[in-house]
Design brief:
By secondary structure, the protein is α+β, with helices and mostly antiparallel strands. Helix content is 25%, strand content 28%.
Length: 284
């Protein structure tokens, strides 16, 4: 594996991995090197890969069990690959407001067991636009003052998709009864405001503007003020990286220590992504 080359994108987050063909079987040594690189950089890319759907699933399983019970509005690739969802838009089927991702978020934090991470395989890209941004939640925590860290270390936040669903449903002009019926099926979860990564031991902020409702045990006005500060703090450019996708690129991110934002600036140009999601553990 002497050809395995890591090129950091910033000193804080992100790296490209060169010299690896993900269409070939992944042995134990390669799996361990990929995993260690992800733990170090939190976000890694493999440019211009020619993975098949079977290869994509095999890569995902290197990191754990994959999600198959996707929300009903997401499209599964086919019956043989229930792990892969398709995210696609073009001039005939523009990106739907319900499943857009042009907001800063950490995936599915309203669940008791949020995902460990996700793996994207870029199938089609627009000529311009369609970049994605990520930010390091551990770097954001490290940059806080010691008194702020001590306070946040003791707090618990409630994550709830209901408010987001109601807001997005209204924006999409969905029938009110349908919005409320869907919202009733959703779960909520409580997680520490500061999460300790189970593999690296690093502490990171674990709140996001999309899914975090409030901090428990303090007045709502104080909760709103603290969260508003944290939401702006974590997206500082010093903690972040922006990716211009190439066709065939594979991206893997650690959902336990990052947030991301898919920039919706490409109009109705064709953009198609295959994605698998790795099931996770309860944040501690």
């Amino acid at each position: 594996m002497s050809e395995f080359e890591v090129r950091p994108l910033t000193p804080t987050i992100g790296a490209e991995v060169h010299g690896v063909d993900l269409s070939k079987p992944i042995d134990t040594t390669l799996r361990e090197r990929i995993e260690q690189t992800l733990l170090e950089h939190q976000l890694i890319f493999f440019p211009k890969q020619r993975m098949s759907p079977d290869d994509h699933v095999a890569l995902g399983r290197c990191f754990g069990e994959l999600q198959t019970n996707h929300p009903p509005y997401l499209r599964v690739l086919d019956a043989e690959h229930p792990e892969i969802i398709v995210i696609e838009s073009d001039e005939t089927h523009p990106a739907n407001v319900v499943d857009r991702a042009n907001v800063w978020h950490t995936d599915i934090t309203w669940h008791e067991f949020p995902p460990t991470g996700s793996i994207l395989h870029m199938q089609e890209i627009p000529e311009t636009g369609g970049d994605t941004m990520w930010t390091s939640l551990t770097a954001a925590y490290d940059a806080l003052s010691e008194p702020m860290k001590r306070m946040l270390d003791t707090l618990t936040a409630v994550h709830d998709l209901t408010e987001a669903v109601l807001r997005i449903g209204i924006e999409a002009n969905a029938p009110r009864d349908a919005i409320l019926d869907f919202a009733k099926q959703l779960s909520s979860a409580e997680h520490p405001v500061v999460r300790t990564h189970p593999r690296t031991g690093r502490k990171g902020l674990f709140v996001n503007r999309t899914f975090t409702s409030h901090i428990k045990g303090i007045p709502r006005a104080e909760s709103d003020a603290i969260l508003a500060f944290l939401y702006e703090h974590v997206i500082q450019p010093e903690f972040s990286v922006r990716r211009r996708w190439g066709k065939g690129d594979v991206g893997i991110w650690d959902n336990r220590c990052t947030s991301h934002y898919a920039i919706s600036d490409y109009g109705n140009a064709h953009r198609r992504i295959h994605r698998v999601t790795i099931l996770g553990e309860r944040p501690q």
